[in-house]
Amino acid sequence: MNDFKPQIVAFCCSNCASSAANVAEGMKKALPDNVKIIQIPCTGRVEILHLLKPFEEGADGVYVAGCQEDSCQYVSGIAKATKRVTHVKKILEELSIEPDRIDVFNLSAGKGQEFVEVAYEMVNKVKELGPFLQA
Amino acid sequence: MSQEKPKGPVMVIGGGIAGIQAALSLSDAGYGVHLIESTGSLGGMIPKLHRIYPLCACCKVNPRIAACEQDPNISVMLNTKVSGLTGDFGNFSVTLETENQKKELQVGAVVLAAGIETFDPAEHETYPHEQFPNVITSVEYEQIQKPLGPEAGILKRPSDGKTPAKIAWLQCVGSRDINQCDAPYCSSVCCMYALKEAVNTKDFDEDIETTIFYMDMRTHGKGFEDYLNSAIDRDVRLIRSRVHTVDTVPESDDLLIRYADESGHPEEESFDMVVLSVGVRPGGEAIEIANKIGVNLTADHFVNTEPFKPVSTNVPGIFVCGGLSGPHDIGQSLVQATATVSEIASILSPEPFAAPKKYPNASEAADEDPEILLAYHLCPGMAPELGAEIEGYALKTPGVKAASRVEGDISGALTDQLKEAGANRLVFASCSPVIHKNLIEDALKSAGLNPYLYDVVDLRAIDPQTSSTQLQDRIRMGAARALLLSPPSLREIPVVKSALVVGGGVAGLESALAVAREGYSVTVVEKEKELGGHGLHVRRTWQGYDTQEYLKELIASVNQDKNITLMAETEVKENRGFPGNFVTILDKKGECVELSHGVTILASGGNPIRPQEYLYGQHEKVYLWSELEQRMMDNPSSIEGAGTAVFIQCVGSRDSSCSHCSNICCTFSVRTAVDLKAKNPDMNIYILYRDMRTFGERENLYREAREKGVIFIRYEVDNKPSLQPIDGQERLNVVVYDQVLQKSIAFDADFVSLQTAIVGTNNQELADIFRINLDSNGFFAESPEKLKPVDSSTKGIYIAGLAVYPKDMVESIAQAKAASARALEILCQDTIQVGGLVAEVMAEKCAVCCTCVRTCPFNVPVIDHETGAACIDPGLCQGCGMCVAECPGKAITMSTCSDQMLTQAPSVLLAT
Asked: How confident is the model at residue B179 (pLDDT cuts 50, 70, 90)?
């Protein structure tokens, strides 16, 4: 059995991800304790450096959770974040690191369970990849 | 101005989205509000629904409910019914009953917002809702779709829990029906919600077949037609038909739908589940109240409103908004709710429950070394042991000076605890930090601190097995961020107490009057020589009221109003500034005028397009609809004497050149046809249409037209009708392929009226000048903040009328009043606070690369040539931080979410 417990850092939009958390809470769904959240006003705030920093500090995976493309309170925040995540994937690839260690997800209050589901999805994916430092 | 007005609080009856909006807007305008709800919770219909279309706003409903509960000027009374109302405007006495306790309250005005019910299909024999478990109503379907519903969002059919492979929606259940239910009107919202439910089903599982059986697809609102087209692209199947029987497939739980297709041909098809798109009707209790207090109802039992006063009832001082005044969608309900405030302000002076709060001046404490108070609030469902654990860990966390629990009056308790602890930073842990934001900021201000010196800890979605780790991570994070907070600079800027209204049509003039009436000066700018806009070409409203008479009175009252300055033949050239303090440069017949104003209302109107087809401009008997109206006003006999009249719908609308539906054209044609038939019953009238979109109570007019012998022929967009001039005559030959008869038919017409698409007058130009966003159809876009239908994407700029979306005059008036109510919220303040959660430019680092200018979704950054740097107006910045992330020179900062915080956060979180 693979008993590796990856450490994941998640950048979450304080609008949709927060209301999605509300629904997840209502469904009594909990986040795994190895997913650590950094709240940001809008996913458009997050920079490439911010996305890389957690890896340096020992994270095994990183993700960004923002709005649906068509309902971002700041219009293009999640689109910007998606672009940056794509770029970080390229950087990781160039460093021979699995690009799947970073991802971006679109959440909404209407599908709050996804707030927890994507956390588990990310944990499982990174678990398969193994610890970051060995990569 | 307001000395002779009576004074008093207001009662809002009904706690759905319209009632909530009315209460919040009234409180913003300074009124004390009694919000009465007959059930045990606020929210009304929306909490029962799964996602709202097209822009989902589910996330905004709970914060609004919380805002009502937290507002000292709103007294929420749940489980309360109105049992009587006596007295007059300014002095109503209302008897309420809460759990058998009677209570009497005195109020100055009343807003009826008691909402709608959905049709109960048990009354209807065609739809076996009671017999078959897999026949459910649309509301029941939304419950299944909801993640917090009984099925946790997993789509299963009720009889056997199987995932349905094929689902059918049946439209107009309990609408457009005079045989089996007393609802001749169209419920207006069901086509859109059925499309939304089908699209959400596709989101759940792309392989589920979704089919909608309908008569006319009525997607007539702002952005609705685009949503319809996207649903079709998602393989939502639409069948124009009449369903006559729903039965079970023998020996299964499946359902067999028997229907007649458009040509009358019988068809049948089986489905796993059938959803009944039930119509809406005014709530039974609401009708009872209305009857008790002498408010007139329409034949369809909706509250009747005064001509040209869309939210006023026949009883002075009693207003109406939302579904009770007709089948309206959420956006329209919000518009009406806000509009009631403008009407109430004109007759009643506000009497608040609580005096406006005074805050001490900010102390120097913020500049000292950060010392944190960690306060927490536990919701009823939370384990009480959690408190001890939070406190225990918090006190071990660097920077935390004190930790305590708050209960009851959150803001007051926080203020006291901050003072007691001598803390200058706050970390607040609770289950819904977004909802507590206002209370936290209020507490910090009351404690003499900068209101943005806090961070929040989310206590939700914690796994009970590992709660300690999660709690500790989050507390460490919150404290670490709070230590890095520096107080953002705040300024109080005086509000310029005047408004600019762009557009001298109905929407512009109504909003100007509503603002001027409250004593503020208003400048109305009109491009043309004459006031009235497109209203000049409208003969009657769809209800039959005389428009020109109303317009004359409106223009006269605007002319008489000393607070209003009219500038005709004037255009807007430039605009700068922020809410409370705008400057606009105007071009008045070549003369340059500079105007300072606190708010802006854009009501620049719209026009029908001039088509290149149907011989327009080539044959003198082919009219644009506005030209036909003009003729009917100037020389009615020239039109009324015609033997045959033809109306062609959707000219240049709903096609590749212009994808939106122009909303009012179907109703215009039936209104005109009914009027012509009244003058000349022998006239042959043909209306060539694609979908008859006589939504709401306009449906009654459509039925009347059919009864009077008006002939409706449906055509397909790829097989449009054709017109041929007849040699030697003024008449035209019309050929159209009839979808019912499945063949072409031809007839001669004395005139043809083209109902062409309506587009904004100069929206692009104004959007550039005022830096606001347009929607995909070129109309002014509403604020992406959601549930703010008259707010533009820039604060302090409000929108109304045809420039927002094609709509009838009565709806434009409601929008204008709502826009003015929003504008008054700013004008009634003496100063406005700018700064806080915003981006700031360090001029010395700025290389003027314009990246921020291009990045900002709200076009806020500009280059200031004097300082040689970008300038971000703190009054306009919405605080997303995108420019901070994009600036290549790191010249833009945001104190509440700094680079330092984001780069240190991972080490704080991962340090275990």
From this structure: confident
Residue in B54, B466, B884 closest to A33 by CB: B466
How close does chain A come to B815, measured CA to CA in Å? Answer: 22
- Among B344, B276, B448, CA closest to B113: B344
Same domain? For B223 and B303 the reply is no
Residue B76 sits in a domain whose CATH number is 3.50.50.60
**Chain B residue nearest residue A44, CA to CA:** B882
Q: Which of A23, A31, A36 sits opposite B909 (nearest CB)?
A: A36
CA distance B140 to B651: 39
Query: Would the CB atoms of A68 and B56 count as touching at under 8 Å?
Result: yes
CB contact under 8 A, B458 and A59: no
Domain presence at residue A54:
yes
Query: Which range marks the domain in which residue B579 is found?
Result: 498-605+761-832
Q: What per-residue string of b and e applies to B395-428 under the rule 16 or more CB within 10 Å gives b?
A: eebebbbbbbbbeeebbebbbbbbeebebbbbbb
| Phi, psi (rounded to 5 degrees) for B555 | -65, -40
pTM: 0.89
Specify the number of domains making up chain A: 1
Closest residue in chain B to residue A32, using alpha carbons only: B463
Q: Is B32 exposed, middle or buried (0-12, 13-18, 19+ CB in 10 A)?
A: buried
Distance CA B197, CA B194 (A): 5
Instruction: Please report whether residue A17 resides in a domain.
Output: no
β pairing state of B318-320 and B109-112: parallel
In angstroms, what separates the C-alpha of B204 from chain A's closest C-alpha?
10
Find the residue in B nearest to A111 (Cα). Answer: B147
Listed residues B296, B325, B350: the one ending a domain: B350
Q: Which residue of B has its CA nearest to A59?
A: B910
Q: Do A57 and B878 touch (CB under 8 A)?
A: no
Contact call for A27 and B58, based on CB within 8 A: no
The complex's ipTM works out to: 0.94
Q: Dihedral sign, CA of B766, B768, B774, B776?
A: positive
3-state secondary structure of A55: helix
List, for residues B532-551, the tens digit of each pLDDT value. Answer: 999 999 999 999 999 999 99
Distance CA B26, CA B321 (A): 13
Residue with tokens 């900002």: B856
Of B115, B34, B67, B85, give the one whose Cα is nearest residue B336.
B115
**B881·A40 Cβ contact <8 A:** yes
Across the interface, whether the CB atoms of B885 and A46 are under 8 A apart is answered: yes
Contacts of B50 in chain A (CB under 8 A): 110
B77-97 confidence digits (pLDDT tens): 999 999 999 999 999 999 999
Nearest residue in chain A measured CA to CA from B465: A33
3-state SS of chain B: helix, strand, coil percent to 5?
30, 30, 40
Closest Cα of chain A to B202: distance in Å? 14
Q: Verify that B148 and B266 share a domain, yes or no.
A: yes
SS3 content of chain A, % helix, strand, coil (to 5): 50, 20, 30
**DSSP β-bridge partners for residue B259:** B243, B267
Q: In chain A, at which residue ranges do the beta strands (DSSP E only) sit?
A: 8-13, 35-40, 61-66, 102-106
CA distances, B392 to each of B425, B429, B431, B733 (Å): 19, 14, 19, 88
Which of A57, A68, A75 is closest, CB to CB, to B910?
A57
CA separation for the pair B470, B909 (Å, rounded) = 10
| Final residue in a domain of this structure, among B280, B311, B326 | B280
CB nearest to A33's CB, from B51, B463, B785: B463
pLDDT, one tens digit per residue, over B366-419 is: 778 899 999 999 877 777 788 999 999 999 999 999 999 998 888 899 999 999
- Model confidence over B848-877: pLDDT tens digits? 999 999 999 888 999 999 999 999 999 889
